[in-house]
Design brief:
By secondary structure, this protein is α/β, with parallel strands linked by helices. The chain is about 25% helix and about 25% strand. Strand 13 (about 275-280), helix 4 (about 285-295) and strand 14 form a beta-alpha-beta unit. The longest helix has 28 residues, at about 315-340.
């Protein structure tokens, strides 16, 4: 299973505004008539219920949306860039690779999120006409689209998950309860990735059952396969804890305690999930003795006796699982409704688009990711582009901020990777 991949996404750049003039009969003086550039394309991610892994994106290293088109004559807007949509399976989480921030957790069928915003189109020259300058020879360049590296991580979404030590009969349970055909062999770690199947009960009800690779002591710290798949267990509504009651794989009392300790060490909330305890291999010698000791140690715990090899006792476990799953689903729906009803408004002041940094010796630096991206689009060998860039800086308030900070004519101002002379 392709569980985690990294992709670079780039939203489209905004189109340039147009420097254009009106040339029509009865309008002898003409005037600025250039339109605005189109918006750059956005990048979206959508849940596709037909996908079960991230395999289709495995060799996709980068994704780029379309750029906006330049503005047109007669103040006409340039066409927006084409959007791009990545389709991923249910249960995909998306993080910013640089910061680790969670950007999206896709847990609903056909859910769609915008993951990278296209750049705004530049303004045409008609926006810059003033009483002093009624024929502006410049227009704005388009803003660059967002660019970032993303980590796509697929965490299995299942109603119930089979957990326990290796070789306790989890895969056999799955094959007996569903049409899934996981690898089954008489050695540990036969299951190297989660297997899933659909349980269909006699009354028509159904749910998704997952067989998790075996956990061992120290799984939460990375021993065995534990740390890789413990995160999948977090997405299961109900846990079915399978124990080898024959004692072949060790003392079931100790195994039960160790597995729960590992769950709690990895994520304390895992211990709050409904857990169905299954005493498997009850057809083998010594199983009754171990079961008696287990019940004496946990008198309040309901234990289901099974023999997966003989397909005995499985139906009772599945019926109990369905009851617990229904309760979990109802609790989730109630929680969602409560979240929808209670809306908390928090005032978050808008971050400034730039800051001015005094480097000393009559040198200043404009610190701004937005301005840096904009500067990269400017051709400083073209006078009109430079005028347009300067007009944008003035409109953003950078000239005023430099003056207030104490900048004087002739000072050097660093913008992006360029050095400009400051003049009031």
């Amino acid at each position: 299973m392709i569980d985690q991949i990294k992709i670079h996404v780039k939203a489209g750049d905004g189109g340039k505004g147009l420097v254009g003039w009106r040339h029509e009969k009865f309008y002898a003086n003409g005037g600025p008539f250039g339109g605005d550039g189109g918006r750059g394309g956005h990048v979206y991610v959508e849940v596709d219920t037909n996908e079960t892994t991230l395999a289709k994106l495995r060799y996709t290293k980068s994704v780029k949306a379309g750029n906006g088109e330049p503005g047109k004559m007669k103040k006409m807007h340039g066409a927006d860039g084409e959007d791009v949509t990545l389709r991923v399976p249910l249960g995909t989480m998306i993080r910013n690779a640089a910061t680790g921030d969670l950007l999206a957790d896709l847990t609903r069928p056909h859910q769609i999120v915008q993951i990278a915003h296209g750049g705004k189109g530049g303004l045409g020259n008609y926006h810059f006409a003033t009483a002093r300058n009624d024929a502006p020879e410049y227009a704005q360049p388009g803003e660059p689209g967002e660019s970032l590296d993303l980590i796509f991580e697929l965490r299995l979404l299942a109603d119930a998950g089979l957990i326990g030590f290796p070789s306790v009969g989890k895969s056999t349970f799955l094959s007996a309860a569903t049409n899934a055909r996981p690898a089954i062999a008489a050695y540990p770690f036969t299951t190297l990735e989660p297997n899933i199947g659909v349980v269909e009960l006699k009354d028509g009800r159904s749910f998704v059952l997952a067989d998790m690779p075996g956990l061992i002591e120290g799984a939460a710290e990375g021993r065995g396969l534990g740390d890789t798949f413990l995160r999948h267990i977090r997405r299961c509504r109900v846990l079915i804890h399978v124990l080898d009651m024959s004692g072949e794989q060790g003392d079931p009392l100790e195994d039960y305690a160790i597995i729960n300790k590992e769950l709690g060490s990895y994520d304390a909330s895992l211990l709050e999930k409904p857990q169905i305890v299954v005493a498997n291999k009850m057809d083998m010698d010594g199983a009754e003795d171990y079961l008696r000791m287990f019940k004496e140690a946990h008198p309040d715990l309901k234990v289901f006796e099974t023999s997966t090899q003989l397909h005995k006792g499985i139906e009772a476990v599945l019926n109990e699982a369905e009851v617990q799953i229904t309760r979990a689903r109802e609790a989730e729906q109630a929680a969602l409704k409560e979240q929808e009803q209670v809306v908390v408004y928090r005032y978050e002041p808008k971050r400034p688009d730039f800051t001015i940094e005094n480097l000393g010796n009559r040198k200043w630096k404009v610190v701004s990711e937005k301005v840096d991206r904009l500067a990269d689009t400017v051709d400083f060998n073209k006078e009109n582009d430079v005028f347009a860039f300067a007009a944008t800086l003035t409109k953003m308030g950078i000239d005023k901020a430099l003056a207030e900070a104490g900048a004087r004519d002739g000072d050097q101002v660093i913008v992006g990777s360029y050095v400009m002379d400051y003049n009031k």
